[in-house]
Specification:
The complex is a heterodimer of chains A (480) and B (537). By secondary structure, chain A is mainly alpha-helical. Chain A is built from 20 helices and four strands. Chain A has a three-stranded antiparallel sheet with strand order 1-2-3. Chain B contains 13 helices and 24 strands. Chain B is elongated and about 125 Å long. Classes of the chains: A mainly alpha (480), B alpha/beta (537).
């Protein structure tokens, strides 16, 4: 330990992130992803509304706050609305009863995010002030403070909470592994975070499988009483919450998902779209709806929400049919998976600016501030689903060997990391096909975000294990 | 600004006319006719669907060739009417319980010298004075409207203000008879000098026809009896093509000339489904059907601006034209003629514009209609008003039906095969003398971005050249076949092939290495780790 390194690597990461992220978020003109049309429903159910004459393509700082009865108030309770409600309450308390400042939401996200960064860094790096830990701290800052991620914090996109809660989840898992004794509170909060994560957005229910695998890792630690009962209970609970989350959406939203699963999924990337009418009762003329979205831009020969469309089209297929249709045309599934893979590392939402309006600025302005990591990913990361599978298999093999080796040596705390990595890789592998079947290629930035962030988390865990020589070489160090 | 300019031009013309004498005098009368009519309504009163009556009135005047400016009574500004910019004023009362008034409008109307027409109840004193009539309220009576030999029971039986007694010089357009006393009759539309009165625009065929004749006479439109055009509406690429073909076959077998009001798509035009659609439309053309292209319905979330609208519409026209489907005109709901950018982008391209009824507005629904205070509509070379066929079904002596302005009777596309039979029997019993484009020498033109489409008495013209055959030639059809399997250059193919090949190679190498690793691990364990000396911590 050197004297000049007074500050611990974890504190260094947190302070660096706080400064790098805080400046663009809170100093006017504020930065954050602007609305691409998704906010409206969320705003309405949280007593907010867009003020008249707001410009498209800019981050909007001020929203209107409803003062009277709101028919749509918290129609579908999600983690996101809870956080927004807290921000609204603070706004009412400290600022105004009729105007909502986005920075209240930003501030809550910001504090939660810093907590998440601290938890994750603590679990990953540990408290030792070795030089290689500082190297890890730099890499962590580069990744976690990247604008592509942190601009979500100043927006109403569900990705903000997905990002924060996944950080907590991985952090809690890693720190749990450091304790010899069982830590009831941390175990409990791990599962609480898992539940919250599932409830952020309906598509987050797809994270269920990864969370169950990671949960097995938490519960299979030594000294844990009632292992089997608990495991069963928590698995059942996770599945239940996942199911609730998947169904926690308005009928209109589920109509939309169903419609787009067909038009932006099954009908795309095929030279024979009319094959759909062979196994269903759909008029082949409806193949002309290919690539149409539920809320088209301005102009449609037949509206998606029209009763006629429902009767002739959307009511004539269902999820089991979609699954079997993809099963009979696997090459198409492969092409669609490659479409998702192409979009995986484009972390920014499409059609979203990042800056509040200021004199002379253009709409859809995309900031370049602190985007080294995301730019590199977007440029160099291979855009094939098969590559993700290969990568996952390679990492799984590496961790599998380490797992067996550590178990044989009785180093269960090191072995347990295997479960986290496998859980995250399961998300990377399993959720794109599910996304394609359930939502098609619509709104990929929301649906695929957990995949991209899981890959980043796996990368950081792998890096830390390589740097700290935990995979092959014999390490006796243990953080407590 | 534009109005001011128009007005300036107009005064300039007048001065010229004064200087140039007789020849220029005719010019000035022509110029006078281009002045718009001011339509002032008290309320849209969507509870009684009065917005549809306003729309009907606007379309009626467009089909008579009158430009119209519509304004709400409350938004009327002082001296608007007396500025000399208008040839006439139509006062429409839709909400008599509310008794909405605007004193500056009443004062201006009193001074105004042009044509005045009142539609509905609630006549003000100046109007009563000018009409010199005695009025009577009829409540809850089943009334029958007569016109020449035709008659029709009016559907609405609410309160109606009618003329009880009128001076002898009054010109009458239709008369009403009550249900209780058949001998008691009332005049329906009445024209006295330059003033007119209409009890209501009504929701029935004959009442709209009476209104059309009254307006034509008041505004001195050249009268010529028109036969109605039979139009099937609501045809989109998603319509059942077999059913549409059956309908076309039946129409042509029975010798009904007909038109189709269709919507199309701007994307996915390389799909088989689109070619099936265009081949059905070609089949319609070959059987004498006219095609009116309608812009697709607008969704409320994000309205397109004029340029985007024009681009999409031109794309649709081009993709239809490539498959030899040549629309003779454009059809659109009435509100498309009420906003300038929509009219310029879509309607102005065509010589023949079929104006369809608006959709009824419902409370709370997002409106796509113009929200401007003043809306102006323009006439076309031939504006055709579209009225539902069902409104005329209860008219007696339909074979004698003649319309005062170009009119089309609309029948929605049948939803099932049984409905086709119903429609045919309805048409059979109606015996309406339909407009025949060949016999009546229809001559239309439609401008697209690159081509001029024309139709003259059954012959299609493309850029001034007559088209001999609508069928696609073999190589035209070839070029349209879906070219999904695009010929990629060999370079691209190599790159595509190599990326998949690389993945296979990598996975093979990975498996191989994993195998080696496990063998190596076993060797290592067998050589260096003796059982029993396991390092336990």
């Amino acid at each position: 330990m050197r004297r000049y390194l007074q500050i611990s690597p974890v504190a260094a990461v947190v302070i660096a992130c706080a400064i790098i992220v805080g400046i663009p978020m809170f100093i006017t003109p504020i930065h954050g992803y602007s609305d691409n049309g998704d906010f409206q429903m969320l705003l309405a159910s949280n007593d907010l509304f867009q003020l008249p004459h707001t410009k498209i393509g800019y981050t909007i700082q001020k929203y209107g706050l409803m003062r009277h009865y709101n028919q749509l108030h918290l129609e579908h309770l999600t983690t996101q609305s809870v956080v927004i409600q807290i921000a609204v309450a603070l706004n009412r308390w400290f600022y105004s009863r009729s105007i909502f400042d986005l920075r209240f939401l930003g501030a809550i996200h910001y504090l939660l995010y810093l907590g998440g960064v601290a938890t994750f860094a603590n679990g990953l790096i540990g408290r030792k002030k070795r030089r290689r830990n500082y190297l890890l701290a730099i890499v962590l800052t580069l990744i976690l403070a990247d604008s592509a991620f942190t601009l979500y914090l100043n927006s109403f996109y569900p990705q903000a909470l997905t990002l924060i809660l996944m950080l907590y989840l991985a952090g809690l898992f890693l720190s749990l592994m450091c304790y010899k004794q069982e830590n009831v509170w941390q175990t409990f909060s791990f599962f609480a975070v898992a539940f919250l994560l599932l409830m952020v957005h309906e598509s987050n229910s797809l994270l269920c499988i990864g969370l169950i695998i990671a949960g097995i890792g938490v519960l299979s630690r030594p000294h844990h009483h009632l292992i089997h009962g608990m495991m069963l209970c928590f698995t059942a609970l996770l599945l239940l919450v996942g199911w609730i989350s998947a169904n926690n959406l308005s009928p209109e939203a589920s109509q939309m998902n169903k419609y787009q699963a067909m038009t932006q999924g099954k009908l795309l990337t095929t030279s024979h779209p009319e094959s759909i009418s062979q196994t269903t009762n759909i008029d082949p003329q409806f193949t002309l709806m290919r690539a149409q979205s539920y809320y088209p831009n301005g102009y449609a020969a037949l509206k998606a929400e029209d009763a006629e469309t429902k009767r002739q089209f959307t009511q004539r297929y269902d999820l089991p049919w979609l699954i079997s249709a993809y099963a009979t045309d696997l090459p198409q599934m492969g092409r669609l998976l490659d479409v998702t893979a192409k979009n995986t590392m484009l972390l920014r939402p499409k059609f979203a600016g990042t800056q509040a309006a200021k004199p002379g600025s253009k709409p859809q302005f995309k900031t370049k501030y602190f985007t080294l990591f995301s730019q590199m990913l977007a440029t160099f990361y291979p855009r094939k689903y098969a590559f993700n599978c290969l990568l996952a298999a390679a990492i799984a093999i590496v961790y599998g060997f380490a797992f067996v080796r550590h178990l044989k040596r009785g180093e269960r705390w090191l072995a347990s990391r295997f479960w986290l990595v496998i859980g995250l890789l399961a998300i990377v592998i399993a959720s794109p096909p599910a996304v394609v079947v359930l939502y098609g290629t619509a709104d990929l930035s929301i649906h695929i975000f957990p995949v991209a962030f899981s890959l980043c988390l796996v990368g950081m865990v792998l890096l830390s294990d390589v740097v700290q020589h935990r995979l092959w070489r014999n390490t006796n160090e243990r953080q407590t | 600004m534009r109005d001011k300019l128009n007005f300036g031009l107009f005064t300039l013309l007048l001065t010229l006319a004064a200087i140039l004498g007789l020849r220029a005098m005719t010019m000035s009368t022509n110029a006078a006719e281009t002045r718009p009519v001011l339509l002032v309504y008290d309320s849209k009163n969507i509870a009684t669907h009065a917005d549809l009556e306003i729309d009907c009135c606007q379309r009626l005047m467009t089909s008579l060739g009158l430009p119209v400016k519509s304004i709400k009574l409350a938004d009327y500004q002082k001296d608007e009417l007396t500025s000399g910019r208008y040839q006439g004023v139509v006062t429409m009362k839709n909400w008599d319980q509310q008794r909405l008034t605007n004193s500056s409008f009443e004062r201006d109307r009193k001074i105004f010298k042009g044509v005045k027409l009142h539609v509905g109840p609630e006549l003000q004193s100046d109007e009563r004075q000018q009409l010199c009539c005695r009025f009577k309220e009829l409540t809850h009576q089943q009334l029958c409207l007569h016109q020449e030999r035709s008659s029709q029971l009016l559907s609405a039986s609410h309160q109606l203000t009618v003329i009880n007694k009128h001076p002898d010089n009054a010109e009458k357009f239709g008369w009403l008879s009550g249900q209780s006393d058949a001998s008691q009759t009332y005049a329906y539309g009445v024209k006295i000098g330059r003033s007119g009165f209409l009890p209501s625009l009504g929701d029935d065929g004959l009442s709209i026809e009476a209104a059309s004749q009254l307006m034509g006479a008041l505004f001195k439109r050249p009268t010529k009896p028109h036969q109605p055009l039979l139009t099937i509406t609501g045809i989109s690429p998603y319509t059942n093509m077999k059913r549409l073909r059956t309908l076309i076959k039946q129409f042509s077998a029975r010798g009904y000339p007909f038109a189709l009001s269709i919507t199309s798509v701007a994307t996915n035009t390389n799909l088989e489904a689109f070619h099936r659609y265009t081949s059905t439309l070609r089949f319609a053309e070959q059987n004498g059907g006219l095609i009116f292209l309608s812009p697709s319905s607008e969704t409320g979330t994000h309205l397109l601006n004029g340029d985007e609208l024009r681009a999409i519409f031109q794309t649709e026209l081009a993709s239809l034209g490539a498959d030899h489907v040549f629309p003779v005109g454009v059809s659109a709901p009435g509100y498309w003629n009420q906003s300038k950018y929509r009219r310029d982008a879509v309607l102005q391209n065509a010589s023949h514009v079929l104006l369809l009824p608006n959709q009824p507005t419902t409370l709370g629904a997002q409106t796509i209609n113009s929200t401007a205070k003043v809306t102006a509509s323009q006439p076309f070379k031939a504006g055709v008003i579209g009225l539902p066929f069902s409104k005329f079904e209860t008219v007696t002596h339909k074979d004698k039906l003649r319309f005062n302005s170009p009119t089309s009777l609309l029948i929605p596309m049948p939803q099932n095969n049984a409905e086709i039979g119903t429609i045919l029997s309805r048409l059979e019993s109606a015996q309406v003398p339909w407009f025949d484009p060949i016999r009546d020498h229809l001559n239309t033109a439609l401008e697209t971005g690159s081509a001029l489409l024309g139709y003259r008495s059954g012959q299609y013209w493309l850029n001034g050249e007559p088209l001999s055959d609508l069928n696609l030639t073999a190589d035209q059809r070839q070029s349209e076949l879906p070219t999904q399997a695009t010929k990629a250059s060999w370079m691209n193919r190599v790159i595509q092939w190599q990326s998949t090949a690389l993945i296979w190679i990598f996975s093979a190498i990975g498996l191989f290495l994993a195998g080696l690793l496990s063998i190596g691990w076993r060797l290592y364990r067998g050589k260096f780790i003796r059982p029993g000396i396991h390092k336990d911590r």
